[in-house]
Amino acid sequence: MPLLEIALPNVDIDLIYATPANITGRTIYTNMVCLLHADAAAALRTAAGIAGAQGCRLRVYDAFRPIEAQWRLWEACPDPEFVADPREGSNHARGVAVDLTLADADGLPLDMGTPFDDMTALSHHGSTAINATAQANRSRLLGIMAAAGWDHYPSEWWHYQLPAPKRYPLLWDAAAGGRIL
């Protein structure tokens, strides 16, 4: 099944890995193209609708991440708690995972207690070492995403994936027509 480019109401695209402002300190993606498998795109559309009904928007930091890009992240941060070993495969490389946050109606991201890609225990969904507002915002994001059919990853408040992601194949940039790298 082809990957779909994401352009949805109530969804802002801010692909961090298409800039050098990420954990590697360099640009990983050549193009700011947000792609997902059709099943994930449908679930993101549902999540965006739920967020919109609550007066919020979604801000997507990452979606489909080709295997080649997964290697670049792994080289910068070979910590399997936060970056999937590319030999095992990332759910991003299947096109069924998304990294995102909630934003207000004007697009300003809500306080989540840590920035995206903060590779510490403070980023865990259940961290109580962050302020109460950030805890509530994380819970709100979790509720929206769960209601839309997504599973969460306990170590990263920003990471969601479709259930049973391994039923989807791992994909290289060629699967995206070379539009990412």
UniProtKB/TrEMBL annotation:
EC number: 3.4.13.22
Taxonomy, superkingdom: Bacteria
Leading EC class: hydrolase
Cofactors, names only: Zn(2+)
InterPro entries registered for this protein in UniProt: A_A_dipeptidase, Zn_M74/Hedgehog-like
Annotated residues for binding of Zn(2+): H92, D99, H159
SUPFAM superfamilies hit by this protein: Hedgehog/DD-peptidase
Recorded catalytic activity of this chain's protein: D-alanyl-D-alanine + H2O = 2 D-alanine
Classification via Pfam families: Peptidase_M15
Function comment: Catalyzes hydrolysis of the D-alanyl-D-alanine dipeptide.
Name of this chain's protein: D-alanyl-D-alanine dipeptidase
